[in-house]
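Table 4 source record.
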Amino acid sequence: MIIDVHGHLLDLAYRTGKPLHAELEGNTDVPKLKRGSVNGQLCPIWTPDIALSGPHSHSVTSPFRALLGVLEYLHRELSGPAGDEVMLALTAADLRAAKESGRIAIIVGMEGTDALDDDPEKLRIFHGLGLRHVCLVHERANAFGAASQVWEQGKMRRYDPARDPVSRLSDKGFELITEMRRLHILIDLTHLVEPAFSEALDVIDEPVLVSHGGARGVTDSIRYLSDEQIRAVAATGGLIAASPSPLGPSREQPGLPLLLDTVDYLAGLVGTSHIGIGTDFKDQPGYYPPGFADSSDTPGLIRGLEQRGYNPAQIDDICGENFHRLVEGNLKGSGLNSQGLTP
């Protein structure tokens, strides 16, 4: 089983207005995933508030309505021809069923929580529509916690503890985590600043996810995980997904070598049982060099892991089985069926 733990297939398809199973002009889509023998993707929907992030081409005026629009599009598509190619995955059993049926499994997520309008109770609405993953922060600090990136006058920079306010997990952040745990939603700590990251771990007694990013031992950036954070995630039984995509601003070169270097570093620190792959592939054709330029190049990733000395069992774990186990332990079912409809 091969699962991309962080990719933007759903965002791309919705924004183009094309069918969910169409070929898209980006780095990931259903045909590319199938050509790469990828069985599924966690799709964190990205709806940053234009008043607070950027502005840039993905900013929206109403994140709540925008996220509802993406989910409505998904369910409409799954009820048509796309349902023969794609399956909404709500449980680990759904991931297996999608693989066996030859369909691409989608786990729906939320990258950043602008769509909640600072209200943890709104999470129930999205959960009822199939959302099973939340990354607490993304492009900026919000009502729930602080992010490792800051937008100033339309430009992004790294969080700087010497100039930015000390920010931790807020009371609403603790409320949101409590609600996520009640609903059995995957908790993604990517993008949190270190104090908030640690406070979240203090109140979570289940495996957590870092769906994409890197390690400071490879690139010294506040946007990446320290050795202490890596060990803390592993101690929960959780997963850290290495990525070919730098978290900027950065001078790193995107691509397969960055991903493989991160895998090597994580494996040396906590072993291969806590590693996944989160590409962060979206609408950036030409950004990645040949070798792992889009989802169809996933066989190149497998070859790269083989060349770094990983055995078949370790490669299976890194490329999907570790994430499958995380889902098996965290997602406990739903009132929806695999087509996204209430029985």
